[in-house]
Amino acid sequence: MRDPYQVLGVPSTATDEEVKKAYRNLARKYHPDNYQNNPLADLAQERMKEINEAYEEIQRQRKAGGQSGGSGASYTGAYGGYGGYSGGASSAGGTRFANVRAAIMRGELNLAEELLNASSDRGAEWHFLKGSVCYRRGWMDEAATYYERAVQMDPGNQEYRQALYMMNNRGYRPDGYENTRTSTCDANCMRCCTTWICCNLLGGGGYYIWCC
Amino acid sequence: MFGYVRPSVRRLSQEDQDRFSSMYCGLCHTLQRRYGLAARMILNYDLTFLAILLQDGTDCSGGCRRCVVHPLKKRPCAGQSQALDTAADYSVILSWWQIQDGIADHGFWGGLKYRLAGWLLGGAYRKARKVRPDFDENTRRHLEELAQLEKEGCPSIDRPADTFARLLSGAAGEVKEESRRRVLQQMLYHLGRWIYLTDAADDLSKDLRSGSYNPLPLRFGVENGALTPEGREALAQTMDRSVEMMAAAFELADFGVWTEMIRSVVYEGLYAVGGAVLNGTFHRRRKDREETQHER
What span, in angstroms and rounded, lies between the C-alpha atoms of A9 and A26? Predict the structure, then answer.
């Protein structure tokens, strides 16, 4: 095992508070939410595991060494939740497209797409799964269109709303880079904002609107 | 099609800035060493960024050197490295195919400058093709696919962007370590997608005037020779998604001394350039920059 302090990027003389802060920042960075349906999710999961183990190891060492270990309960439960999904389309939810969901989970996107194209059922779930395939490929524009259509067709479905919400989630930002985006705001600023608010409502989300 | 990637200088320490310009000079010297003086004309920031991604996280300081462009003052310049060699070979191949595209797209008079460039770069290209046959084949195949989509007038923005993205992600094909290769392929895929969309936005008014293929007006609404505000916002959002995917991939590999530089690109530099292109202020900036480069 690598030196746990090196994994968290702090010196071994760091205070409990500093260790906890470093751990939290890394856990935020590699949080499963930032790698949902991402082809590199397995690498992020490995990093998360390494970070969790390092944090627990430091806690253990410090408790054994009689240092004040009381400040940090393990966050494993809160942040460790990688196993819960393997790619936007989980096996839970509808069962009509179980074979498509399984193909997406295995990363066999061409097969998933063939199965979808062959289907005559073009309901909400079909659009959601089309969106999942597009997203995994990096076809972000079409993914958004399919997800939006799925939510429109079945507004009560949490899985579809969640997918659209996660897509609009800005992901991890390092300190000092929180607000950067491709700003297109000029004289039409108010109209941009309206667009954003609409997206928010549709996604059912509670995320911030950055404008100008 | 290149010239959009640059770091956010205000975020970088002097040391990081110097390291970046030494890589730029290093690529220039590598191009000359491998392909002669004419090959230097293809140098740009995007290709320097490619060299940095392919570099294994170390810098390869080669001391200070004089050159044709900077004859009086010696400048810090990266020495030889495998990444610089690879980036130089890929640069020649990419540029040559881009020139061929220019010749095919223009008539006799308009195509003259492309034919001149193609003639100057012909020898270099034949040499590069011999060293990197796979990348040459990859580039040719994807550009052919792209030409086909253009001919059909493909109304999707994702499809042509995907073709260009796959072309660029091929540049990570020779990276040996598997997880690093996957990270680089993902970064280059979304960089390619972003470059394609940025370039389409940059060329929009020109393409609308000449009637050339551009997927943006087919996908989004156009009024008075520009995208509607809603269209621009939707385009900005989908470009953001690609930059975010690049950043998420970037966090999964160790880039050593280049970490701050790449961070400033994927968390700020690309957003700033994309914003400038969409707001129509990028060209003015490019012209300014070219003038200052000439003065230097």
Answer: 9
Per-residue pLDDT tens digits for B214-249: 999 999 988 888 899 899 999 999 999 999 999 999
Work out the minimum CA distance from B246 to partner chain A, whole angstroms: 11
Residues 6 or more apart whose CB falls under 8 angstroms from that of B88 comprise: B27, B30, B31, B34, B35, B39, B51
**Nearest residue in chain A measured CA to CA from B156:** A142
Question: Are the Cβ atoms of B229 and A188 closer than 8 angstroms?
Answer: yes
For A6, the enclosing helix (H) or strand (E) is: helix A4-8
pLDDT tens-digit series, residues A95-139:
678 999 999 988 899 999 999 999 988 999 999 999 999 999 999
In chain B, what residues touch A196 (CB-CB under 8 Å)?
233
Q: How far is CA B194 from CA A100, B101, B223, B240, B244, in A?
A: 29, 20, 23, 9, 11
Distance CA A4, CA A27 (A): 14
At B113, which helix (H) or strand (E)?
A: helix B112-131
Give the helix/strand (H/E) hosting A160: helix A158-168
Q: Is B13 on the interface with A (CB under 8 A)?
A: no
**CATH code, domain carrying B273:** 1.10.600
Please check whether residue A190 touches B, CB under 8 A: no
Interatomic CA distance for residues B53 and B47, integer angstroms: 10
Nearest CA in chain B to A180: B268
* Segment (H or E) for B65: strand B61-65
Q: Which structural domain range is residue B104 located in?
A: 13-291
Residue B188 lies in a domain: yes
Does residue B269 fall inside a structural domain?
yes
Tracing tokens 């082809």 back to the chain, one arrives at A39
CB distance from A40 to chain B under 8 Å? Answer: yes
Which chain B residues are closer than 8 Å to A44 by Cβ? 248, 251-252
ipTM of this complex: 0.86
CA B49/CA B41 separation, integer angstroms: 17
In a domain, B239, yes or no: yes
What the block records as the tokens of B37 is 């003086």
Would B8 be classed as within a structural domain? no
